[in-house]
Amino acid sequence: MLAQQLVNGLMLGGAYALVAIGYTLIFGVLNLLHLAHGEVFMVGAYVGLTLALAGFPPWATLGGAMLAAAVLGVLVERVAFRPVRERGSHVTPLMTTIAVGLILQHTVVKIFGAEPVAFPAPFASAALALGPVTISTLQLLILATSVALMGALELFLRSTPLGMTIRATAENPTVAGLLGINVSLAIVATFAIASALAGAAGVLLAWNFTGLSPFFGVKVGLKGLAIMLLGGLGNVTGAMVGGLVVGVVEVLSVAYLASSYRDAFAFAVMIVILLVRPTGLLGARLQTG
Amino acid sequence: MLSDHAVSILIFAGIDVIMALSFYLPASAGQLSAGQGGFMALGAYTAAYLTVNHQTPFPLALAAGGLVGGLVGLAVGFPALRLRGLYLVLVTFGFGEMVRVLFLNLPAFGGPAGFAGIPPATTLWHVLGLLALLAYFFTRLAGSRMGRAFAALRDDEAAAEAMGVNSTYVKLAAFSAGGVIAGLGGALYAHYTLFIDPEAFGVGRSLFVMLYAVFGGLASFWGAVLGATILSILPELLRWVKDWREILYGLLVLVMMLVRPQGLLDAALLARLSPRGERAAAHG
Hints:
The complex is a heterodimer. By secondary structure, chain A is mainly alpha-helical. Chain A has helices spanning 2-30, 37-53, 58-81, 92-112, 137-159, 161-171, 173-178, 183-209, 216-231, 236-256, 262-276; strands at 117-118, 127-130, 133-136, 211-212. In chain A, helix 2 packs antiparallel against helix 3. The longest helix of chain A has 29 residues, at 2-30. Mean pLDDT of chain A is 86; it is low at 285-289. The A-B interface holds A 27, 31-33, 35, 79-80, 83-84, 87-92, 94-96, 98-103, 105-107, 109-110, 218, 222, 225-226, 229, 233, 258, 260-261, 263-264, 267-268, 270-271, 274-275, 278 and B 32, 79, 82-83, 85-87, 89-91, 93-95, 97-98, 101-102, 104-105, 112, 203-204, 207, 210-211, 214-215, 218, 243-244, 246-247, 249-251, 253-254, 257-258, 261-262.
């Protein structure tokens, strides 16, 4: 029973972590909160739905959602962040991204309707019994995809020139610029990557919940924010660990406590962490990632 | 005479202005709160609980709503001492969510089904009366010792402390006063809608309250008044676009924030509008 819940939690947590990584990457590089990130996630899921309904295979559904979300993310940066980066206070981007979120949400309502819709399963899932744990092949796919994406990101940030550019910009944009790093490119790349991961998470969670609604992004977006804080702002590894922790705890609290408390837990932990360890569980900013 | 519909628009706009002012007060001391919906919920549920279960007279229930908002504001103010800028935004965000989940899980307050049967009590005059009181308060605050301490803390915390501003005391005062105003707003809201549920005070509410004040401009409390008035009446003016309304609303807010990132009423515009006020500030 417990082992089973752990597996379920890890699967959920992996997808949450993908969303949280997006927040944390953007926060690490720009020191800004992207309040429409949950909506980018939701739009990614709807693009995936459209592709799935058109009969594309699961890998194309996932890839298409990631691509569309990446384009959308870069667009959001252009429209809502770049114009106010140098002007206004640091709350201005909060406001512009709220507005963008509102526009995205209601555009989706306009196209797909406000009601929740069913998301087709990618394939007929079979149950695999591994000792005490039963895991469906779909769960396995979701878990493997999120782990693979996180691994790819880690590798990308660590050992490619563009990844290095992003890390340098996160460290200090001014100095990075002075040393000849193309800061604008780093910012655009950050938004593209963060949003692509959110798009992937959108499809993975839609597979998991077998449905989605235009307001799906708000809830998951909030969870992503809490996870970012848990792991430490701007800390990619922290967001991965934080996502898995929140996923597991959520599943356990539904199994053993009242399910209505599950959303409270992430925030309670987040507040305690911020009071006791304002830099998050894993400490400093964007060191390893 | 105003039609019922017009009165209800004005009451909701007035409550939005009150909420925007509750955000503006701590913001004028540099403390950005994304949890004003939480304080509003506390005020609304406290006052409604008292009038429904204890037949408390409305003015008393209103005061209790404000008091609870203020006390919790004091408690939330403590983390504010350690956190700045976006960190504080995120913690207050979390606070708002916690309050929402708390009321979802309290059967005495109706849980997710909401709290119904609240007696009608709020009139337009109550809302306007509270607004007049707040306008007087903010006008007096601007030139006072406390008001200047707020401004000093917002501009440069270290410099303010060096000049003898007790930042702990000032921040807590700002936060709890903001909580009082939001609690009052919540109590008025509950006795007008007559039904409240936790979702009415969630993150969406908190973010919109913040949006009202920032949209209007944080240079003076008139910014919050202006921003909240415009943005809460705007949906009525956009009725003709039917289901494009929210999209157009978002576009208008986005364009406005891009054109005037510092808000509608910034310091320069304020100075142009009131040469007298500027002189008075220079003397005071």
